[in-house]
Design goal:
By secondary structure, the protein is an alpha/beta fold. The protein is 30% helix and 23% strand. Helix 3 packs across helix 5 and helix 4 crosses helix 9.
Length: 474
């Protein structure tokens, strides 16, 4: 089925279509391009025009370019535009305009991708749902997601992120959501903002794109909730809060964390819903609260969504857990919690709470007592207070129940120095240096959490620990 014909794409972008082609998808990466895709030659770390020939050779339906690369034949299927990024934005706007989908936009300092994935999971069971791939939430990710939206989409979930002031407003205006929500506001990207209030003001900009009659979901109980509320009330037809207090429209009324699950009772209006998530975490429960609020605001079935949340699993690197078998014959293993995609003080506190809720196994390893072990990499983009924010992790309540902490990076050295000696594991300047000692980091029976900002490359420790494993005996 065609997503874009040459004529439609040319009209949407103001470009000049060469050839009578059609495209079944839209791609910006030749490594993942599928036959029939429209290849968009964006200029990022590398110039996409250098890959047009490769894209066409792999079966691209056409290529969107601002110049014709050398060696491309005259009869090649092309869409020639003045500026590729601007044209992608126009294509996204046209993709959004031609659908009757109910659209929800999600942002937040923590939890936006997990919330987006939860929404996609439950809405897909109630209609044709289109959602952002991976963390495609920036100035090219949002228009790309919209440009990929099928005509018959019934629900769309658009994730919107930011690193600097002024990024969210144009993206939410492009997405034109019927429902907009902020998961939470925390100390993230402080390099670009004076304080957390500035971050809240930027996050609140998501409400600026609401369609007439739109609904704003606002997290309650934050110091910055009044900032979010002010913008929401100015832009939305209706504002609903979600949180843990009786006055919240959607409320986490009860929470139980087990080794492998989160069980929550969520009250929405006069209805109470029991939700079971296959991964433990208070933060996941709060994401589920926001999800049920958004489902209700979209006019979908909240009871069905509450049930279907049990099928959701965290995206890779965001709290996924697995068993690594060190000795399959003796059934010796460790539980690995991979939360290495990103980190900030709020998400580390949440991840440590999950670690503490997971019970290690005693009597199976060299040490005889299973331990709760954390490998923590630098938290980046925290601005002038970055040293203090790393030191303060030592005072987190969950940290008292963590047995051993290994640290990666110059910033995490400040946490390592702040820990009592019995909790100090190994500290390494780089993740690679710690990987070389992977076999010394854990013992059978341990539960291991790996968490850090993507730039710390602490995810390499996850890979190193996996390599210690063997297939389970059958």
């Amino acid at each position: 089925m065609s997503l874009w014909t040459a004529a439609e794409a040319a009209e949407a972008t103001g470009g000049n279509a060469r050839g009578d082609w059609s495209a079944r998808g839209v791609s910006i990466d030749t490594r993942t391009l599928a036959p029939g895709d429209l290849f968009v030659a964006l200029k990022a770390e590398r110039d996409g025009h250098d890959f047009v020939a490769d894209a066409l050779a792999k079966g691209a339906g056409a290529a969107m370019v601002s110049r014709i690369p050398e060696g491309i034949p005259e009869n090649a299927p092309l869409l020639v535009v003045d500026d590729v990024l601007t044209a992608l934005e126009r294509l996204g706007a046209a993709g959004r305009a031609r659908t009757d989908a109910r659209v929800v936009a999600v942002t937040g300092s923590v939890g936006k991708t997990s919330t987006k994935e939860m929404l996609a999971t439950v809405l897909d069971r109630q209609g044709r749902c289109h959602a952002a791939e991976a963390s495609y939430n920036n100035h090219w990710g949002v228009p790309l997601t919209l440009a990929r939206m099928p005509r018959d989409t019934e629900f769309a979930v658009i994730e919107i992120g930011m690193n600097h002031p002024g990024e969210i407003a144009p993206l939410t205006r492009l997405a034109r959501p019927h429902v907009a929500l902020v998961t939470t506001v925390a100390a993230v990207h402080l390099e670009a903002f004076d304080n957390v209030a500035g971050i809240a003001q930027e996050k609140a900009a998501i409400y600026q794109g609401l369609e007439p009659g739109g609904i704003a979901l606002v997290p309650a109980g934050l110091d910055t909730t009044p900032i979010l509320m002010a913008e929401a009330e100015a832009r939305a037809e209706r504002v609903e809060t979600f949180g843990t207090e009786p006055g919240d429209a959607i409320r986490l009324a009860h929470l139980e964390l087990t080794d492998a699950a989160t069980v929550a009772r969520i009250d929405a209006g006069e209805m109470s819903h029991l939700v079971r998530l296959g991964s433990p975490g208070r933060h996941f429960a709060m994401n589920a609260v926001a999800v049920l609020g958004a489902v209700g605001a979209l006019g979908a079935d909240v009871t069905l969504a509450a049930r279907d949340l049990s099928t959701w699993e965290p995206p890779t690197g965001r709290g996924t857990r697995e068993t690594v078998w060190l000795d399959p014959v003796e059934q010796e293993h460790v539980v690995l919690i991979d939360d290495a995609f990103n980190a900030n003080p709020t998400s580390i506190a949440a991840a440590l709470e999950v670690l503490v809720a997971t019970r290690p196994d005693d009597g199976v390893g060299r040490i005889s007592r299973g331990r709760r072990v954390a490998v923590l990499g630098d938290m980046l983009e925290l601005g002038p207070k970055e040293v203090a924010l790393h030191e303060e992790l030592a005072g987190l309540s969950a940290m008292a129940q963590v047995d051993l902490v290994h640290c990666v990076g110059p910033l995490m050295k400040h946490l390592w120095d702040s820990l009592p000696a019995q909790k100090q594991g190994r500290w390494s300047e780089t993740a690679d240096a710690l990987c070389a000692e992977a076999h010394h980091l854990i013992d059978a029976g341990d539960v291991l959490l790996v968490k850090g900002s993507k730039g710390s490359r602490v995810s390499r420790v996850v890979d190193a620990v996996r390599k210690l494993g063997h297939p389970q005996a059958t």
